[in-house]
Amino acid sequence: MSKILVIAEHLGGKLNASTARAVSAAAAVKGEAIDVLVLSDAPDAVAAEAAKIEGVNRVLTVTRPENAHPLAAMLAPQIAKAADGYSHVFAPSTTFGKDVAPRVAALLGVAQVSDVMSVEAAHTFKRPIYAGNAIITVEADANHTVVATIRTASWSAAASGTNTAPVEALAIDVPLPTHTRFVELNQGSSDRPDLQSASKVVSGGRGVGSKENFDIIYKFADKIGAAVGASRAAVDAGYCPNEMQVGQTGKIIAPELYMAIGISGAIQHLTGIKDAGTIVAINKDGEAPIFEVADFGLVGDLFKIIPELEAALG
Protein backbone atom coordinates (compact mmCIF):
# COMPACT_ATOMS: atom_id res chain seq x y z
CA MET A 1 0.00 0.00 0.00
CA SER A 2 1.03 3.58 -0.64
CA LYS A 3 2.29 5.72 2.22
CA ILE A 4 2.62 9.43 1.49
CA LEU A 5 4.86 12.02 3.13
CA VAL A 6 3.74 15.63 2.58
CA ILE A 7 6.34 18.34 3.15
CA ALA A 8 4.83 21.25 5.07
CA GLU A 9 5.41 24.75 3.76
CA HIS A 10 5.47 27.40 6.47
CA LEU A 11 6.87 30.82 7.25
CA GLY A 12 6.96 32.85 10.44
CA GLY A 13 5.45 30.05 12.50
CA LYS A 14 2.36 29.74 10.29
CA LEU A 15 1.41 26.91 7.96
CA ASN A 16 0.91 27.86 4.32
CA ALA A 17 -2.44 26.89 2.78
CA SER A 18 -0.52 25.09 0.02
CA THR A 19 0.16 22.26 2.47
CA ALA A 20 -3.55 21.42 2.80
CA ARG A 21 -3.82 21.36 -0.99
CA ALA A 22 -0.94 18.90 -1.19
CA VAL A 23 -2.77 16.76 1.41
CA SER A 24 -5.81 16.70 -0.92
CA ALA A 25 -3.59 15.29 -3.68
CA ALA A 26 -2.15 12.76 -1.25
CA ALA A 27 -5.69 11.65 -0.32
CA ALA A 28 -6.42 11.04 -4.02
CA VAL A 29 -3.69 8.38 -4.05
CA LYS A 30 -5.91 6.39 -1.67
CA GLY A 31 -2.95 5.08 0.26
CA GLU A 32 -2.50 3.55 3.67
CA ALA A 33 -1.44 6.73 5.46
CA ILE A 34 -0.65 10.42 4.99
CA ASP A 35 2.04 11.95 7.19
CA VAL A 36 3.07 15.62 7.21
CA LEU A 37 6.72 16.51 7.82
CA VAL A 38 7.49 19.83 9.51
CA LEU A 39 11.12 20.97 9.51
CA SER A 40 11.86 23.98 11.69
CA ASP A 41 13.86 25.25 14.63
CA ALA A 42 10.58 25.59 16.56
CA PRO A 43 7.95 23.41 14.84
CA ASP A 44 5.28 23.16 17.55
CA ALA A 45 2.87 25.85 16.30
CA VAL A 46 3.10 24.72 12.68
CA ALA A 47 2.74 21.06 13.66
CA ALA A 48 -0.39 21.87 15.66
CA GLU A 49 -1.94 23.47 12.56
CA ALA A 50 -0.95 20.55 10.34
CA ALA A 51 -2.44 18.07 12.82
CA LYS A 52 -5.88 19.59 12.29
CA ILE A 53 -5.93 18.91 8.52
CA GLU A 54 -8.47 16.24 7.61
CA GLY A 55 -6.87 13.06 6.29
CA VAL A 56 -3.52 13.49 8.06
CA ASN A 57 -2.55 10.44 10.12
CA ARG A 58 0.60 11.80 11.77
CA VAL A 59 2.64 14.97 11.92
CA LEU A 60 6.39 14.41 12.11
CA THR A 61 8.69 17.18 13.30
CA VAL A 62 12.41 17.67 12.83
CA THR A 63 13.84 20.33 15.14
CA ARG A 64 17.25 21.68 14.20
CA PRO A 65 18.67 25.22 14.33
CA GLU A 66 19.62 24.85 10.64
CA ASN A 67 15.89 24.66 9.84
CA ALA A 68 15.17 28.17 11.08
CA HIS A 69 14.94 29.29 7.45
CA PRO A 70 13.67 27.17 4.52
CA LEU A 71 16.92 26.61 2.65
CA ALA A 72 16.56 23.77 0.16
CA ALA A 73 20.18 22.72 0.55
CA MET A 74 19.60 22.16 4.27
CA LEU A 75 16.13 20.64 4.11
CA ALA A 76 16.61 18.19 1.23
CA PRO A 77 19.06 15.78 2.97
CA GLN A 78 16.74 15.60 5.99
CA ILE A 79 13.65 15.00 3.83
CA ALA A 80 15.43 12.30 1.83
CA LYS A 81 16.35 10.55 5.08
CA ALA A 82 12.82 10.90 6.49
CA ALA A 83 11.37 9.53 3.23
CA ASP A 84 12.68 6.05 3.99
CA GLY A 85 9.70 3.69 3.95
CA TYR A 86 7.39 6.06 2.08
CA SER A 87 6.11 5.36 -1.42
CA HIS A 88 5.43 9.04 -2.21
CA VAL A 89 6.88 12.40 -1.21
CA PHE A 90 4.66 15.38 -2.10
CA ALA A 91 5.47 19.07 -1.90
CA PRO A 92 3.37 22.02 -3.10
CA SER A 93 4.32 23.41 -6.50
CA THR A 94 5.16 26.79 -5.00
CA THR A 95 8.50 28.58 -4.92
CA PHE A 96 9.32 26.53 -1.82
CA GLY A 97 8.34 23.18 -3.35
CA LYS A 98 10.00 23.86 -6.68
CA ASP A 99 13.20 24.66 -4.81
CA VAL A 100 13.37 21.69 -2.46
CA ALA A 101 11.69 18.80 -4.34
CA PRO A 102 14.26 18.48 -7.17
CA ARG A 103 17.04 18.15 -4.60
CA VAL A 104 15.10 15.46 -2.75
CA ALA A 105 14.48 13.59 -6.01
CA ALA A 106 18.18 13.78 -6.89
CA LEU A 107 19.22 12.45 -3.48
CA LEU A 108 16.76 9.56 -3.85
CA GLY A 109 17.93 8.89 -7.42
CA VAL A 110 14.50 9.34 -9.04
CA ALA A 111 12.96 11.60 -11.67
CA GLN A 112 10.61 14.19 -10.21
CA VAL A 113 6.99 14.46 -11.37
CA SER A 114 6.12 18.16 -11.61
CA ASP A 115 2.85 20.09 -11.32
CA VAL A 116 0.52 17.17 -10.63
CA MET A 117 -3.01 18.34 -11.43
CA SER A 118 -4.79 15.00 -11.02
CA VAL A 119 -4.08 11.53 -9.66
CA GLU A 120 -5.23 8.75 -11.99
CA ALA A 121 -3.73 5.90 -9.95
CA ALA A 122 -1.11 5.47 -7.26
CA HIS A 123 1.70 5.94 -9.78
CA THR A 124 -0.13 7.65 -12.65
CA PHE A 125 -0.63 11.40 -12.79
CA LYS A 126 -1.69 14.16 -15.15
CA ARG A 127 0.25 17.39 -15.53
CA PRO A 128 0.19 20.35 -17.94
CA ILE A 129 2.84 20.88 -20.62
CA TYR A 130 3.42 23.46 -23.38
CA ALA A 131 2.25 26.34 -21.18
CA GLY A 132 -0.92 24.45 -20.34
CA ASN A 133 -1.91 23.86 -23.97
CA ALA A 134 -1.72 20.10 -23.47
CA ILE A 135 -2.14 17.68 -20.60
CA ILE A 136 0.20 14.70 -20.38
CA THR A 137 -0.26 11.48 -18.43
CA VAL A 138 2.87 10.45 -16.53
CA GLU A 139 3.49 7.01 -15.04
CA ALA A 140 6.14 6.79 -12.33
CA ASP A 141 8.16 3.67 -11.54
CA ALA A 142 6.27 1.75 -8.85
CA ASN A 143 9.54 0.29 -7.58
CA HIS A 144 10.90 3.65 -6.49
CA THR A 145 9.73 6.53 -4.32
CA VAL A 146 7.60 9.07 -6.19
CA VAL A 147 8.75 12.64 -5.61
CA ALA A 148 6.18 15.09 -6.94
CA THR A 149 5.19 18.73 -6.74
CA ILE A 150 1.47 19.42 -6.53
CA ARG A 151 -0.10 22.10 -8.71
CA THR A 152 -1.92 23.89 -5.88
CA ALA A 153 -4.29 25.76 -8.21
CA SER A 154 -5.75 22.41 -9.31
CA TRP A 155 -6.57 21.17 -5.81
CA SER A 156 -8.88 22.51 -3.13
CA ALA A 157 -7.48 22.63 0.39
CA ALA A 158 -8.30 19.70 2.64
CA ALA A 159 -10.68 20.66 5.45
CA SER A 160 -9.11 21.76 8.70
CA GLY A 161 -10.21 21.89 12.31
CA THR A 162 -11.81 18.49 12.86
CA ASN A 163 -8.74 16.25 12.84
CA THR A 164 -6.43 15.56 15.79
CA ALA A 165 -3.43 13.74 14.34
CA PRO A 166 -0.65 12.83 16.79
CA VAL A 167 2.59 14.82 16.60
CA GLU A 168 5.84 12.86 16.80
CA ALA A 169 9.41 14.13 16.90
CA LEU A 170 11.96 12.63 14.51
CA ALA A 171 15.70 12.58 15.09
CA ILE A 172 17.31 12.95 11.67
CA ASP A 173 21.06 12.49 11.91
CA VAL A 174 22.43 13.50 8.51
CA PRO A 175 25.36 15.77 7.68
CA LEU A 176 24.26 19.11 6.27
CA PRO A 177 26.17 21.21 3.73
CA THR A 178 28.20 24.18 4.89
CA HIS A 179 28.37 26.02 1.57
CA THR A 180 24.88 27.51 1.94
CA ARG A 181 23.82 29.99 4.60
CA PHE A 182 20.89 32.30 5.25
CA VAL A 183 21.66 36.01 4.90
CA GLU A 184 18.33 37.82 5.01
CA LEU A 185 14.75 37.67 3.78
CA ASN A 186 13.26 40.63 1.95
CA GLN A 187 9.56 40.37 1.31
CA GLY A 188 6.84 42.79 0.39
CA SER A 189 4.19 43.55 2.97
CA SER A 190 0.58 44.38 2.18
CA ASP A 191 -2.78 44.61 3.90
CA ARG A 192 -4.39 43.08 0.81
CA PRO A 193 -5.21 39.36 0.57
CA ASP A 194 -2.40 36.99 -0.42
CA LEU A 195 -2.30 36.60 -4.20
CA GLN A 196 -2.03 32.80 -4.26
CA SER A 197 -4.82 32.11 -1.80
CA ALA A 198 -7.24 35.01 -2.45
CA SER A 199 -10.78 34.26 -3.64
CA LYS A 200 -10.79 37.45 -5.74
CA VAL A 201 -7.91 38.82 -7.80
CA VAL A 202 -7.68 41.98 -9.91
CA SER A 203 -4.75 42.07 -12.33
CA GLY A 204 -3.42 44.88 -14.50
CA GLY A 205 -1.47 44.64 -17.73
CA ARG A 206 0.48 46.76 -20.16
CA GLY A 207 -2.77 48.53 -21.09
CA VAL A 208 -2.72 50.32 -17.73
CA GLY A 209 0.01 52.48 -19.21
CA SER A 210 2.30 53.40 -16.32
CA LYS A 211 3.30 52.78 -12.73
CA GLU A 212 1.28 55.82 -11.68
CA ASN A 213 -1.79 54.63 -13.56
CA PHE A 214 -1.57 51.28 -11.77
CA ASP A 215 -3.13 52.99 -8.77
CA ILE A 216 -6.50 52.49 -10.45
CA ILE A 217 -5.96 48.72 -10.15
CA TYR A 218 -4.99 48.96 -6.47
CA LYS A 219 -7.98 51.15 -5.62
CA PHE A 220 -10.48 48.93 -7.42
CA ALA A 221 -9.03 45.83 -5.78
CA ASP A 222 -9.35 47.47 -2.36
CA LYS A 223 -12.93 48.38 -3.20
CA ILE A 224 -13.91 44.74 -3.71
CA GLY A 225 -11.48 43.21 -1.19
CA ALA A 226 -9.30 41.52 -3.80
CA ALA A 227 -5.62 40.67 -4.13
CA VAL A 228 -3.65 42.43 -6.87
CA GLY A 229 -1.79 40.69 -9.67
CA ALA A 230 -0.15 41.69 -12.93
CA SER A 231 0.88 40.37 -16.30
CA ARG A 232 4.54 39.85 -17.12
CA ALA A 233 4.36 42.81 -19.51
CA ALA A 234 3.29 45.08 -16.65
CA VAL A 235 6.05 43.74 -14.38
CA ASP A 236 8.71 44.06 -17.10
CA ALA A 237 7.58 47.62 -17.75
CA GLY A 238 8.15 48.46 -14.09
CA TYR A 239 4.51 49.13 -13.23
CA CYS A 240 4.61 46.79 -10.23
CA PRO A 241 6.97 44.38 -8.41
CA ASN A 242 7.83 40.89 -9.62
CA GLU A 243 6.00 39.09 -6.80
CA MET A 244 2.71 40.23 -8.32
CA GLN A 245 3.26 38.45 -11.64
CA VAL A 246 0.63 35.90 -12.65
CA GLY A 247 1.36 33.32 -15.32
CA GLN A 248 3.70 30.56 -16.42
CA THR A 249 6.78 32.33 -15.05
CA GLY A 250 4.89 33.89 -12.15
CA LYS A 251 2.21 32.63 -9.79
CA ILE A 252 -0.33 29.96 -10.73
CA ILE A 253 -3.62 30.93 -9.08
CA ALA A 254 -7.22 29.70 -8.92
CA PRO A 255 -9.43 32.43 -7.44
CA GLU A 256 -13.22 32.32 -7.59
CA LEU A 257 -13.14 35.65 -9.46
CA TYR A 258 -10.32 36.87 -11.71
CA MET A 259 -10.44 40.29 -13.35
CA ALA A 260 -7.94 40.92 -16.15
CA ILE A 261 -7.71 44.65 -16.81
CA GLY A 262 -5.67 45.90 -19.74
CA ILE A 263 -4.25 42.39 -20.27
CA SER A 264 -4.17 41.03 -23.82
CA GLY A 265 -4.03 37.39 -22.69
CA ALA A 266 -0.79 35.82 -23.90
CA ILE A 267 -0.77 32.05 -23.46
CA GLN A 268 1.86 32.35 -20.72
CA HIS A 269 -0.55 34.48 -18.69
CA LEU A 270 -3.54 32.24 -19.36
CA THR A 271 -1.57 29.31 -17.97
CA GLY A 272 -1.61 31.01 -14.59
CA ILE A 273 -5.39 31.46 -14.45
CA LYS A 274 -6.76 28.35 -16.21
CA ASP A 275 -8.27 27.06 -12.97
CA ALA A 276 -9.99 30.35 -12.04
CA GLY A 277 -13.75 30.19 -11.44
CA THR A 278 -15.08 33.27 -13.24
CA ILE A 279 -12.87 35.38 -15.52
CA VAL A 280 -13.78 38.98 -16.33
CA ALA A 281 -11.78 40.82 -19.01
CA ILE A 282 -11.62 44.56 -19.67
CA ASN A 283 -9.67 45.61 -22.75
CA LYS A 284 -10.07 48.21 -25.49
CA ASP A 285 -9.05 45.65 -28.12
CA GLY A 286 -12.07 43.49 -28.86
CA GLU A 287 -9.81 40.94 -30.60
CA ALA A 288 -7.56 40.39 -27.59
CA PRO A 289 -7.01 36.67 -26.80
CA ILE A 290 -8.18 37.19 -23.22
CA PHE A 291 -11.78 37.38 -24.48
CA GLU A 292 -11.55 33.79 -25.74
CA VAL A 293 -11.34 32.50 -22.16
CA ALA A 294 -13.31 35.20 -20.37
CA ASP A 295 -16.76 34.45 -18.95
CA PHE A 296 -17.58 38.16 -19.13
CA GLY A 297 -15.90 40.74 -21.35
CA LEU A 298 -16.05 44.52 -21.53
CA VAL A 299 -14.55 46.20 -24.57
CA GLY A 300 -13.59 49.77 -23.86
CA ASP A 301 -11.33 52.24 -22.07
CA LEU A 302 -10.45 50.84 -18.66
CA PHE A 303 -10.07 54.36 -17.28
CA LYS A 304 -13.75 54.96 -18.00
CA ILE A 305 -15.07 51.48 -17.19
CA ILE A 306 -13.37 51.07 -13.78
CA PRO A 307 -14.79 54.32 -12.29
CA GLU A 308 -18.24 53.30 -13.61
CA LEU A 309 -17.91 49.89 -11.93
CA GLU A 310 -16.81 51.55 -8.68
CA ALA A 311 -19.81 53.89 -8.82
CA ALA A 312 -22.16 50.96 -9.44
CA LEU A 313 -20.70 49.13 -6.43
CA GLY A 314 -21.53 52.14 -4.25
UniProtKB/TrEMBL annotation:
Highest taxon above the source species: Bacteria
Gene Ontology MF terms in the entry: electron transfer activity; flavin adenine dinucleotide binding
Cofactor binding note: Binds 1 FAD per dimer.
Domain Electron transfer flavoprotein alpha/beta-subunit N-terminal span(s) in chain numbering: 4-186
Pfam families, per database record: ETF, ETF_alpha
Keywords: Electron transport, FAD, Flavoprotein, Transport
One annotated GO biological process: fatty acid beta-oxidation using acyl-CoA dehydrogenase
Annotated residues for binding of FAD: 206, 231-232, 245-249, 262-269, 283
CC cofactor: FAD
SMART domains: ETF (SM00893)
Function of the molecule: The electron transfer flavoprotein serves as a specific electron acceptor for other dehydrogenases. It transfers the electrons to the main respiratory chain via ETF-ubiquinone oxidoreductase (ETF dehydrogenase).
Recorded family membership: Belongs to the ETF alpha-subunit/FixB family.
Protein name: Electron transfer flavoprotein subunit alpha
Protein species of origin: Rhodanobacter fulvus Jip2
